[in-house]
Design goal:
The complex is a heterodimer. By secondary structure, chain A is mostly helical. Chain A is built from 15 helices and two strands. In chain A, helix 5 (about 110-145) packs across helix 8 and helix 5 (about 110-145) runs antiparallel to helix 11 (about 265-275). The mean pLDDT of chain A is about 85. By secondary structure, chain B is of the alpha+beta class. In chain B, the strands form six sheets. Chain B has an eight-stranded mixed β-sheet, sandwiched between helices. A five-stranded mixed β-sheet of chain B has the order 16-15-17-13-18. Chains A and B meet through helix 3, helix 5, helix 7, helix 8 and helix 12 of A and helix 1, helix 2, strand 8, strand 10 and helix 9 of B.
């Protein structure tokens, strides 16, 4: 029962967070300067009438919410308008009906647009993230066990360099290097390629994923190494490890049965967070490699003030991060029952 | 010992994991060129089904602008226009002399009052779905563009009072008023198939129509669109006028221009629409690559905007402050700044010499450019003299001049868009010379959309570095400086001169070409006399093409047209 209460409590907080995000998202984009009707369509030949017509088409002629016509710059309006006829409540109403909206810019449903991009992004980021987690943990364990040796120092230095190297710089270097081997310089699949079968096509996609994936692994692996190493070092200084050593257990047994599990908590935390952010894409890598992922979609949407697309993608990211966190917290209580008690 | 061994085993596993990831993919690639052209033969051997010819000639163009919408009524971007230019036909088409050639239109007559035009159109055009293109389609498309005030082509179509098919291949256009540049308006009015577009009606269905098939009648048929990646088109070998010599045309999107250049150098793409200036020398000196540079056939004007708005003309928008520096309202100050702008140095340093000094809003190279007008040539002494004479002196000796009444030091804000590559250096060069005439600059980049509002309707700016892409007809570029545009959102300097406005209205309806040229020249004189803008340069457009696979690129012209659609039907595979 106590366990159930713990779970329910966590789920409730997660839901509340998502609700707050929904409200926050709406206002976040509307306090940005710039008007979607003018920003999305950067054509000076638009007349004032055109712009008003476009605003009406997007529903932007309605007040943002009671008392406010616009938020940047602030323009107050009558407070007694029908709340259901304001942008905010129309947004909430549509959301409740499961309507995520139509992109101002492409006129396509945003859920479809982001859906496609999420698939692309997950294909790039998830495998890379998993490789980085596994590789990072293993190397972190080794570094901790061999602490204060050349191996440890070397690992630490390399990890720090990887962690701090600018993503776009590394991306460009690897991209140029990859092109020497005939690896593609952008995109997700060779354009105009007539593939004999699905296998050929996937092979082609694989070639496109190789270098961006490698870049991603290098960028994130350092973090896992460093956190794993320091968490494990804490554990290894505990008395019971000394006891285990005194009992004559070998290194593998000590690490596997006694130390690693207790050092897992911080790794679980960042793993959950990073996996949650997977759907947010990797904007710099996607840009350097011209890869059609979520990060790029969001970046473009910001410059076009495409509110529906932004609202939806931020909602998806928020939900997935909250979900991942929820999972992590549930996992905590399994890994360390003391967490549940507190 | 055993401890050592396990750790060693860890490393072995690690190395295996790493190499396992790397080897299988790189190995075959080092041997073969990974172009689909070369992958083709194996595919044919395996499965002799409906494959295209063994070695299709594919031309890939690298582009940096994304493609969002394939609905020509609402499409906005130049990158989308490029696709439409190939897939659809228009009545007239832009050539490399910045003029329009007849395309679908074969011949035409005009009534004496200039308000009725009768066009005979080509009778052998066929849409890609097999339906013949007739006058009905032309009339329908024109009226569709005219009916969508929220659409992108409305500006070109708004003068049509009525367009109707008066024969199978005869179109009669009635205008609301006689206008001098009707033919130029047809360049972007793509002829849509009536049988596909009419059922959509005029409501939401038309707005939301994504036009995934893009059925047109042009020299290329629409192939595949991968948003954020590429658009591919297949040759329409049966085109009546320009059947392509190549098999497939692809516009491939790059979000990283260094990668795009590298793709050209390694042969993954065949041409780049606009070469980044930083890569210019590298590209130029590479084997098998030719660079085409020239003034664009569609005007490209860089400008230095000086906010001279009279507060009496301030727009009534609730955000408008018209809080620019008052000194800029004085033409003498603007003149001095123009004298103090070292245009040649900006061109040499910022643009690698790939531009010519600018004078007015109408770029040189077009027939509308006023060759008589005298620019303010770089001369710091003269600039100082002008300011001294006008009473702007440095009374307190801090190196910066003040207004004649002793207030408001001449410290100007200079702003530009955050994604402008050339602006920061240009602003620094301006600061170098302006500081020698007692003018101080505060330089800051600004997010693009914030900058638009900051400029108009707010008019809070002092100086902005920006630019325009116009159309070959001067009407639009000249409209920017009219009083009407202060509330019409295109005015950036707040210039208001009734004389100029009157000339603008006159040239818009002047049917006699030479008289219209005279009016346009007079307007340019006024712009320079009143220093509405400082025009630092007219930049060149730089293409780069690979010459080892295709020939027939448009080398023999002085001008370069970034939207020169005819190029793709002109080029042919070498040796074919």
């Amino acid at each position: 029962l106590k366990r159930l209460r713990y779970v329910l409590n966590k789920v409730m907080w997660a839901l509340l967070t998502v609700l707050i995000v929904i409200v926050f998202n709406f206002f976040l984009f509307r306090v940005l300067p710039g008007d979607p009707a003018r920003s999305g369509i950067k054509d000076p030949r638009l007349t004032q009438e055109n712009i008003l017509a476009i605003q009406a088409r997007f529903g932007l002629d309605k007040p943002v919410i009671n008392c406010f016509e616009r938020l940047n710059p602030i323009k107050t309006g009558p407070c007694l308008v029908n709340p259901l006829d304001t942008q905010f409540f129309i947004y909430i109403k549509n959301l409740l009906q499961g309507e995520m909206g139509i992109s101002f810019y492409t006129r396509q449903p945003v859920s479809e647009m982001i859906g496609e991009r999420i698939v692309n992004t997950v294909m790039l980021v998830l495998p890379a993230q998993l490789i980085a987690i596994i590789l990072g943990s293993i190397v972190g364990v080794i570094a901790a066990w061999k602490s204060h040796t050349t191996i440890d120092a070397g690992t630490l230095v390399v990890s720090l360099i990887f962690w701090s190297v600018p993503t776009f710089w590394l991306g460009i270097i690897l991209l140029m290097w990859g092109s020497k081997f005939g690896l593609p310089l952008g995109g997700m699949v060779t354009s105009g390629g007539n593939f004999a079968n699905a296998w050929q096509r996937w092979l082609d996609v694989g070639k496109h994923l190789l270098v961006p994936g490698l870049t991603f692994v290098i960028i994130v692996v350092g973090e896992y190494v460093i956190i794993m190493r320091s968490a494990l070092l804490d554990v290894l200084s505990e008395d019971y490890i000394l006891t285990a050593k005194a009992k004559g257990l070998n290194a593998f047994q000590i690490l596997k049965d006694h130390a690693t599990k207790n050092a897992m908590l911080p790794i679980v935390t960042i793993t959950a967070l990073n996996l949650g952010f997977t759907v947010a894409g990797a904007i710099q890598i996607e840009t350097v490699f011209s890869y059609p992922g979520v990060g790029r979609a969001i970046f473009e949407a910001v410059s076009q003030r495409d509110y529906p697309l932004l609202q939806y993608s931020f909602l998806v990211i928020a939900v997935s991060v909250v979900l991942a966190n929820l999972l992590a917290e549930l996992l905590y209580s399994y890994l360390d029952p003391r967490v549940e008690a507190s | 010992m055993s401890k050592r061994f396990t750790i060693f085993a860890f490393f072995i596993i690690l190395v295996l994991v790493l190499t396992a990831c790397g080897v299988p993919a790189t190995e075959p690639m080092a041997v073969e060129q990974p172009t689909s052209v070369e992958e083709q033969p194996t595919a044919v051997v395996e499965e002799p089904t409906q494959e295209p010819p063994a070695e299709p000639y594919i031309v890939r163009m690298g582009v940096t602008q994304s493609i969002s919408s394939l609905n020509p009524v609402f499409s906005i971007l130049a990158s989308e226009g490029r696709v439409f230019d190939e897939v659809y036909e228009t009545m007239f088409i832009l050539n490399l002399e910045s003029k329009y050639d007849p395309y679908l239109a074969k011949s035409w007559t005009t009534s004496d009052d200039g308000k009725t035009w009768v066009f005979q159109i080509n009778d052998t055009s066929v849409f890609h779905d097999g339906v013949p293109l007739t006058a009905e389609d032309v009339a329908f498309s024109m009226m569709l563009y005219k009916s969508r005030e929220d659409g992108q082509k409305y500006g070109s179509a708004k003068f049509f009072e009525n367009v109707e098919a008066t024969g199978d291949y005869e179109v009669t256009i009635t205008l609301t008023e006689a206008i001098p540049n009707l033919i130029d308006k047809f360049g972007e009015l793509y002829i849509l198939p009536k049988h596909i577009w009419e059922p959509l009606g005029s409501g939401d269905a038309l707005k939301e129509f994504t036009n995934d098939e893009v059925i047109g009648s042009g020299p290329f048929k629409f192939g595949e669109f991968k948003k954020g990646e590429f658009v591919s088109m297949v040759a329409n070998k049966d085109h009546w006028l320009r059947p392509p010599h190549i098999d497939q045309l692809i516009f491939q999107e790059f979000t990283n221009s260094d990668a795009m250049v590298q793709a050209l150098l390694t042969g993954q793409i065949d041409l780049i629409g606009s070469v980044p200036l930083t890569a210019y020398n590298n590209v130029k000196n590479s084997p098998n690559i030719a660079v085409l540079a020239g003034l664009p056939a569609t005007p490209h004007v860089a400008d230095i905007i000086l906010n001279g708005i009279d507060p009496a003309n301030c727009p009534e928008d609730y955000t408008a402050t018209c809080g620019g520096h008052p000194a800029l309202r004085d033409v003498e100050v603007r003149k001095a700044l123009n004298y103090a702008t070292d245009k040649q140095k900006i061109i040499d340093v910022v643009l690698m010499g790939l531009a010519e000094p600018g004078v007015t809003l109408i770029p040189s190279g077009t027939e509308w450019f006023n060759t008589d007008v005298q620019d303010y040539l770089f001369d710091l002494d003269k600039a100082n003299q002008v300011l001294d004479d006008a009473g702007y002196l440095d009374a307190n000796g801090d190196g910066v001049r003040e207004m004649p009444d002793g207030t408001n030091s001449l410290i100007f804000n200079v702003n530009f868009e955050t994604d402008c590559n050339t602006c920061p250096r240009e602003a620094e060069l301006m600061d170098e010379t302006y500081s020698q005439i007692g003018v101080k600059l505060e330089i800051a980049a600004m997010e693009g959309d914030a900058l638009i509002d900051y400029c108009n309707p707010r008019f809070e700016h002092d100086i902005i570095l920006w630019g325009w892409v116009g159309s070959p007809d001067p009407d639009f570029m000249l409209s920017i400086a009219t009083t009407a545009q202060i509330v019409g959102w295109n005015s950036e300097s707040g210039y208001s001169n009734p004389e100029y406005d009157a000339l603008y209205d006159q040239q818009a309806v002047e049917l006699d070409h030479q008289k219209r040229v005279d009016l346009v020249w007079q307007m340019q004189e006024m712009l320079v006399r009143d220093v509405v803008y400082i025009i630092p340069y007219y930049d060149q457009y730089v293409y780069a093409v690979r010459t080892d696979k295709y020939e027939g690129w448009p080398f023999d012209y002085e001008m370069v047209n970034p939207y020169y659609s005819v190029m793709f039907t002109d080029i042919k595979p070498i040796g074919s």
